[in-house]
Amino acid sequence: MSRQTRQTGTARQTGQGRQSAADTQAAPQAAPAPDVGPGRARQAQIYRAGALGQQPRVPADADGLERRARRAMSRRAWAYVAGGAGSGRTVRANRQAFQRWSILPRMLAGAATRDLGTTLLGRRLPAPLLLAPIGAADLVRRGADLLSAAAAAELAVPYVISSQGCSPMEEVAAAMGAGPRWFQLYWSTDEALVDSLLRRAEAVGAEAVVVTLDTTMLGWRPQDLNLGSLPFVQGIGIAQYTSDPRFREVVAERLASGRAGGRPARVTPGAVRTLVSVSRRHPGSLRHNLRSPEPRAAVEAFLDIYSNPGLSWDHLATLRERTSLPIVLKGILHPDDARRALDLGVSAIVVSNHAGRQVDGAIASLDALPAIRAAVGGGLPLILDSGVRSGSDIFTALALGADAVAIGRPYLYGLALDGRSGVRDVVANIVAELDLTMGLSGVRSVDDISPAMLTGPSSPSP
Ligand code: FNR
Q1: CB within 6 Å of ligand 1 — which residues?
Q2: Is 288 an annotated catalytic residue?
Q3: Quick one: average pLDDT of 189-215?
Q4: pLDDT tens-digit profile of 211-264?
Q5: pLDDT of residue 403
Q6: Which of 145, 162, 169, 307 to mutate to test the pocket of ligand 1 (most atoms within 8 A of CB)?
Q7: Which of 79, 130, 380, 381 could form a disulfide with 158 if both were Cys (CB 3.0 to 4.6 A apart)?
Q8: Whose C-alpha lies nearest to ligand 1, atom 10?
Q9: Kind and range of the H or E element at 123?
Q10: Are 330 and 212 in contact (CB under 8 A)?
């Protein structure tokens, strides 16, 4: 549902968001007044802990968060997570795009309470925020998907399960209780695998399938290339595949045809590390896997079929008959593609350049947003990602036409610093700042955040 048609949230639903935000640190528990909102509740919690000499493990600012997380991550993890395509121009552009817009706060609006709630694909959310699909997150911390998904569920924030996840989607769903989850699909060259993943996503209660369009091949990523590091080769980020019955058939066919599983040409320490990593992550016992050609064949099969460089609108046109789930297209930047998605009958679009990891020099997501909103009109929900770091950024994105945003790297940084609590604190901090930004700008509900609240490159001075 677009912001133009978005319903107003109930006090109870908004209260759920507050409760979750208020629970984000173990001790001491602040008991905020019931109506202060997530911003003041979070401040109170942090300052009360501070009065007892405790400082938050998760910095409250995006730069501090990134700096501290970097120190907690391995070189390979940092390269994979923070790295971008080519020179990093689009990674920087994603942030610079936000800097070009300024909020024009209004005074004396009496915005004592704010409603951050929004309805997306028929589900009421406590805030206009999702956790983006992230692959290979075990590089950051073992059990990453389960920890992140559980944190999201606690906050009632949708968690988008990645095709490149490190835990099978069934396990992720089990860790989430009733928390909202979507499934992100990389369209395989094996159509039967596409169908199998869709069936599983339906079975685990995914509320949408998000088809990522911008990664039909991996972008040119120098940080990873310079380390010769690709997590999937280590068996990290292929759990949706190794847990899939159709994928296992593909691997079996490969082995039967004698095409895979051979030993490496040279036995080096690196080759041994890779063998152990792949064997440890493959289903079954480590002992068995170390001797079996199957885990290595699985990696090779994955690399062959995980994505389809020839993906086209013809493929997408088949999707409606293949799943009952609402379809969300991720990675759209051009207004014509957005119009085409609308014609196809999709339920939402994610305006995204994949965090600047695919096409160096691609337009910043935020810069692409206004033209896409104009192209699709008010009826189609738009989710913006790539470069969102704060509540103030969410405010800006909503003012420029987004219905919600997704965050990626920031929650991984929280994960690196403090596991599940770290993810929760990052989300709580961002939501807190959105609440305070709204209140201090004279806005009572996310529906009231409009282009008139911004001044920027193309807007006249008031
Ligand atoms: C991603 N992203 C991503 N997208 C997707 O559709 N499937 C995936 O498996 C992944 N994996 C992934 C791994 C890592 C380490 C990053 C940083 C990103 C893209 C992600 O969903 C989202 O578009 C961006 O991360 C949003 O930008 P920020 O918030 O990271 O700036």
Answers
A1: 80-81, 132-135, 162-164, 184, 212, 330, 352, 354-355, 385-388, 407-409
A2: no
A3: 98
A4: 999 999 999 999 999 999 999 999 999 999 999 999 999 999 999 998 865 666
A5: 98
A6: 162
A7: 130
A8: 134
A9: strand 123-125
A10: yes
Dihedral in degrees, nearest 10, Cα atoms 60, 66, 72, 78: 160
Which domains, from first to last, does the chain contain? 11-143+204-221+309-455 (3.20.20.70), 239-305 (no CATH)
Ligand 1 centre and the CA of 52: distance in Å? 37
Task: Using DSSP bridges, classify how beta strands 404-407 and 129-131 pair: parallel, antiparallel or unpaired.
Answer: parallel
- AA identity, residue 160: V
Ligand 1 midpoint to CA 355 (Å): 6
3-state secondary structure 379-435: CCCEEEECCCCCHHHHHHHHHCCCCEEEECHHHHHHHHHHHHHHHHHHHHHHHHHHH
Q: Please identify, by atom number, the ligand 1 atom nearest to the C-alpha of residue 331.
A: 23
- The residue written with tokens 């609308």 in the block is 342
Task: Outline where 183-331 has alpha helix (H).
Answer: 191-203, 222-227, 239-242, 245-256, 269-281, 286-291, 294-305, 313-317, 319-322
